[in-house]
């Protein structure tokens, strides 16, 4: 069981993992470099532990100690108990969910390892909004996608906002980064995947016409909010696909579009 320690100084160096959580640029640099990520809220902390991530430390308000007792008892990590006002000083925001855990990152697998047993994968290009990353991972997990591949400039799925929006789904869907873009797509295609580029372009086939759920191995590629897929990515795809729009709407938010497309890709897929 981890030691439970009451802390009353916001400058205590033991709280270093939890400082300045609202400084996005700082945390994006710090967390991968220091090998950590932050899990926020009871459910997310539990899911991170269940997924095998090691705990470095916890930051709790007093009333959450009993709630998280079983998690505390299973870990050797120290538990820092603070007043809510002090937690806000340290993190930069009101921690209304009451429980934060600093978790140890694991090395990312190679794309080949992620793809080896997959049949339905997501490929993301330049999706650098953490909320969209979290929403996409949550839909991917819920709708049965097997893995996610990220272009080199995609946002970090383990950033606190991504983890929170996904409700911990980032822990349950395997993912990897392609080292080169879009050249890395050849790795996907060489393993027998048909790369479908999701675009609102009227020249694209509808998802119904394409029938991706009948294909043996499918990689569905999505681009960033607003700009969509780059011309290079579209050129590298095997087929362009689109979601038909009505009432003058030209496109959906990437998170919503992903959910619709994931269902089209996985509907009728045999359960394994």
From TrEMBL:
Transmembrane segments: none annotated. Residues 121-263 form the tRNA/rRNA methyltransferase SpoU type domain. The keyword ATP-binding does not apply. Coiled coil: none annotated. The keyword RNA-binding does not apply. GO terms for biological process: methylation. It comes from the Bacteria. One of its GO terms (molecular function) is methyltransferase activity. InterPro entries: Alpha/beta_knot_MTases (IPR029028), Ribosomal_eL30-like_sf (IPR029064), rRNA_Methyltransferase (IPR051259), SpoU_MeTrfase (IPR001537), tRNA_m1G_MTases_N (IPR029026). Keywords: Methyltransferase, Transferase. This is RNA methyltransferase. It comes from Streptomyces althioticus subsp. attaecolombicae.
